[in-house]
Amino acid sequence: MHTTTAMMLQLTFFKDQTREQPSSSSATTSKTSATYADIHEGDIAHFAQVGFEALVQLLANQQGFQADVIRTVYKYLTSYEETVEVIEEMREAAEERAVAEILSRTEEDKEDSNDIKSEDE
């Protein structure tokens, strides 16, 4: 019985490996379907979580936020696409605020140095 099962597996493997490739126009659809069909149902949630975490980390690296910030924003929205938009807007707002704060502080430094010069004269 063990030999029969092994032979069936070998034949199935060989059949999968020698399957003719579809034309280029239908290759994407067939390949996608075959890829999803090859994932065991019990693994889908795990792979979805791994993929989500990879996207969260990528977005965090691109936009300069911690991954926890990305996850928190995602939790309150309805899609990853919305999350990307909000995170990009957050980065832009943070950059604008940083520029305003830097300019404000450098102007204060100039005023302080002018006050010191006036006192010396």
Per-chain topology:
Elements: H1 2-18, H2 24-38, H3 41-63, H4 67-76, H5 80-120
Helix pairs in contact: 3-4
Describe the structure.
The radius of gyration is 29 Å and the shape is rod-shaped. Helix 3 crosses helix 4. It is mostly helical and 121 residues long. Helix content is 88%, strand content 0%.
How many DSSP E strands?
0
Question: Beta fraction of the residues?
Answer: under 5%
The helix-strand sequence is HHHHH
Summarize the biggest pleated sheet. Answer: none
The proportion of residues forming helix, as a percent range, comes to over 70%
User: What's the tally of helices?
Assistant: 5
> Span from first to last CA?
104 Å
Radius of gyration from CA coordinates: 29 Å
Low-confidence stretches: 24-29
Structural class: mainly alpha
Mean pLDDT value: 80
Gross morphology is rod-shaped
Keywords, separated by commas or semicolons:
121 residues; mainly alpha; 5 helices; rod-shaped
